[in-house]
Amino acid sequence: MKQKMSDAETSDAELLRDYAQGHAAAMEQLVARYRSALFSWLLGMTGNRADAEDLFQEVWFRVIRHAERFTDVSFKAWMWKIARNLLIDFRRKRKPDISLDAVEDEEDQPLVDTLVAKGAGPAEAVENDDLTRRVMRAVGTLPDVQREVFLMRVQGDLSFSEIAETLNIPLNTALGRMHDAMMKLKKLVAEEGQS
User: Fold this and answer.
1) CA 71, 73, 74, 75: dihedral to nearest 10 degrees?
2) Could you tell me the CA-to-CA distances from 185 to 36, 67, 135, 139, 153 in Å, in that order?
3) Which of 53, 76, 105, 195 is the most exposed place for a label (fewest CB within 10 A)?
4) Prediction pTM value
5) Distances from the Cα of 78 to the Cαs of 1, 37, 73, in angstroms?
6) What are the chain's domains?
7) Burial of 3 (0-12, 13-18, 19+ CB in 10 A)
8) Which among 78, 29, 35 is positioned nearest to 57, based on CA atoms?
9) Is the pLDDT of residue 29 over 90?
């Protein structure tokens, strides 16, 4: 039996192969690696915690179901492609009402609050709170194609190559959408700050 590497040293593809060979803990490690980024992206794209949770679970169900057939170069891009396709299907079935400040119940935290720097002291958190809220309100107004790229890059931490592969678009298109999103966000945040 081969010696297992530490969690940080084991690649996503190796974890997926290990899972396909019967090591359930390997899937737990994969889920742990991407839980926060994937869930935040889904929440940002749906604006609803319950829908995001459902889609999150469905992404992992599909990863598990197709683990043995994984042949892509990047697990991360493959997983995001699955998530995006599920989101497209979800949107076809239902027109979302996106509110990044909305919460489903008292335990939930608005998406905008998840962007405040982790580990920041109370003073830094208060200082960043207003700007973060303005940015997230502005993100909610972006066209879907720009918001999708922005959230994949910022919350999903995907490279532009991975975004292009996930969305099945040229790299320059991914870069252009991010550029357009950033220009709109700068303008919207500046306008809101002046009012």
Assistant:
1) 20
2) 23, 38, 7, 7, 15
3) 195
4) 0.66
5) 29, 15, 8
6) 9-97 (1.10.1740.10), 111-195 (1.10.10.10)
7) exposed
8) 35
9) yes
Amino acid in position 58 = E
Q: What local confidence, expressed as pLDDT, does residue 122 receive? A: 56
Sign of CA dihedral 107, 111, 117, 122: negative
Give the number of other CB atoms < 10 A from CB of residue 112.
Answer: 20
Tokens representing residue 78 in the block: 């493959």
What would the DSSP string read from start to end of 54-68?
HHHHHHHHHHHHTGG
CA nearest neighbour of 83 among 111, 63, 99: 63
Q: Among 58-67, 75-84, 107-116, name the one with the lowest average pLDDT.
A: 107-116
Q: Give the tokens for residue 134.
A: 């303005």
* SS3 state of residue 101: coil
One-letter identity of residue 190: A
- Token output for 188: 């919207």
Cα–Cα distance list, 146 to 10, 62, 141, 169, 176 (Å): 33, 26, 10, 13, 9
